[in-house]
Structure formats: C-alpha cells, structure tokens
Amino acid sequence: MSFGLGHGRQLDPAMGVVGLSEAEMPALPDAIATDPKAGWLEPREWFADPSLPFEIEIGCGKGTFLVQQAMLQPDVNFLGIEWAREFAWYAADRVRRRRERGLLNNVRVLNTDATSFVRWRVPSGIVRVVHLYFSDPWPKTRHHKKRVVQDRFLGEVWRVLAPGGELRVVTDHDDLWAWDQEHFARWTCAQGWDLLRGYGVEPSDAGPDGSGPFVQGDFDRPESAGADELVGTNFERKFRRAGKGFHAGVLRKVGGWARCTNRAARVTLRRERAARWGAEPRSACSRTRLCLVGAARVTSRKERALPRNAKTRSACSRTRL
C-alpha cells in the first residue's frame, strides 16, 4: 500500500547517510536469549559528532517535529523512528534535501519498531529525552497490548534515559491518556521499583524513600512549536483544526544508572513467551532459546489473519529490528 507521499517523485532516504542501513543495524545475535546486552549498539556513533546529547522521537511520521526542532538545536543529535516505511522514507528525504544545503547533520531516521529497538538495541543511560507524540491509540480492547505505553516499555525507557532524562508524551485521545495515566501512576510510586527489578533492571540508586522510578511533571512546549501549539506535528495541526483537545505530560527519571541482570531477563523472556503462546518454553532447548527472541516480533495466527492450520515461521535469529 502506498500513501502517495512523494506525489509522483521518488523518495530518497539516503540510506547510510540519513536513513539507517542494514550495515549499521545488523541482525540480533543468537546470544540475546541469555544476554540482554548482546544486541546493544552505540547509536550515538551514527552521527557526525557522537559527543552531543542524544534524543529519540518514537513515531516521527513525516518528520515535522524532527526537522523543526533539530534546526533549532544543532547541538543535539536526534534519531527519528518510524514503523511505516513510506513515512520513514519521506522524513529521511526531507532531511536529505536539507543536508544538501549543509543543514541537519544532527538527524538520522530509522525504519523499525521503536519499542523493540529501545529494548534490545539501546545501551543504558545514554538518552536525554524520548519524545512520544500522538502515538496510535489502538482503541479496541483486544488491541490495547499494541499501545506503546506498557509497563515493559516504561521500564526500558527508564533504563536508557540518563539521570534526570525525560519521556515527553502528547495525545489527543482521551482513552489512551487514561491508559497512560494508569501506567504512569504505577511508575511514580514505590511499586515502580519492583516492576523495574522484575524486568531485569537493577538501579544503582533507587532515589528517596516512597518515590518511584519517575516523577510526573508538566509539559513544556518545545521551541519549535508555533503559536497555540503543543508540539507542532502534522497530527496536532489536523486535530486542532477539527477542534480536538490535547493531553500532555512528562515523566522524569529518578535514580541512577541501571544494571541488567541476566537471570531476571531470562525469566522475563520465558514469561512473555508463555503469555503469548500459552505454554512455558523448555529452557534447555537451544531452539526454544532462539524462539524467545522471535516471540518479541512474531504475532499470533489471528493477528496475521492466517487459517488455523497454517504454519507460521518463527523469526528466530534472523529477526531484524
């Protein structure tokens, strides 16, 4: 399916320059089943100056916020992540054209699943801000598991954020915001530390007594936002014309650096696979260990609209994020 974003013009994502190439994003190693750090990369090395602060936008769409904010902050490296390939290429093409004029050397665009990328690819404590603006609300109850904000996701965001780093969230969807707030409440009280350790992340400093891994605060408009705008994305402008209201908030990281524990990570992988497939995997089987990786990406037969007797192939070690 094509959205016709190029309007007859071929999009050029400038792979390896703006768009991330396969050489820069190799396949996950088999060792990921027992070592959660085996797939970590150093995304800051993808930029001309790796020493600059590093920020991630999840669901960058056409790249409006990415381009506007990066122009105003040339001293910050921005990675835009977009699942829909045509939108990712459109955003990368916008950046490429400005690169040809000597601008936006601080922007890269990645076409992949952002939650999996954060979980398996990003080392601890290197991200200053994670931007999450107008993510898909997945309104049907059976699809709520596909929403970006989940306990697992918040644990991984805490891990990758530098001390004091922020998760910045904006949405127009009332039910999604209620869902977000319900999850935020667990992670802004002491219960959040137990959730964090349950996902195999051990904080070096748990913060003051009674506090959680995050504190919630007010959303400050970015410099690139126009008059009466929160962020200035295409979605916001469209929804504002339709008269919709908006919700916005910030989670700020509490505590120090994170350490991943292999044992807890293995237990978590088994639990997630059991929940997905309805059976506890056999940890002694090497094939099962590889399939633990694939379980993060392979959807159920119902979701893929396959007949009940159709065979699905595990992504296993060849899964690319």
Describe the model:
The chain is built from 9 helices and 9 strands. By secondary structure, the protein is α/β, with parallel strands linked by helices. A 7-stranded mixed beta sheet has the order 3-2-1-4-5-8-7, with helices on both faces. A two-stranded antiparallel ribbon has the order 6-9. It is globular. The chain folds into 2 domains: 30-278, Rossmann fold (3-Layer(aba) Sandwich); 279-321, no CATH class. The chain starts with 53 loop residues before the first strand and ends in a 27-residue tail after the last helix. Strand 2, helix 2 and strand 3 (107-110) form a beta-alpha-beta unit.
Draw up the topology in text.
Layout: E1 54-58, H1 64-72, E2 77-81, H2 85-99, E3 107-110, H3 114-121, E4 127-133, H4 151-160, E5 161-171, H5 174-187, H6 191-198, E6 201-203, E7 214-217, H7 234-241, E8 247-253, E9 258-260, H8 262-277, H9 286-294
Parallel strand pairs: 1-2, 1-4, 2-3, 4-5
Antiparallel strand pairs: 5-8, 6-9, 7-8
Question: Gist?
Answer:
The protein has 321 residues and is of the alpha/beta class. The protein has nine helices and nine strands.
What attributes does this structure have?
7-stranded mixed sheet; disordered C terminus; two-stranded antiparallel ribbon; globular; alpha/beta; Rossmann fold; 9 strands; 321 residues; 9 helices
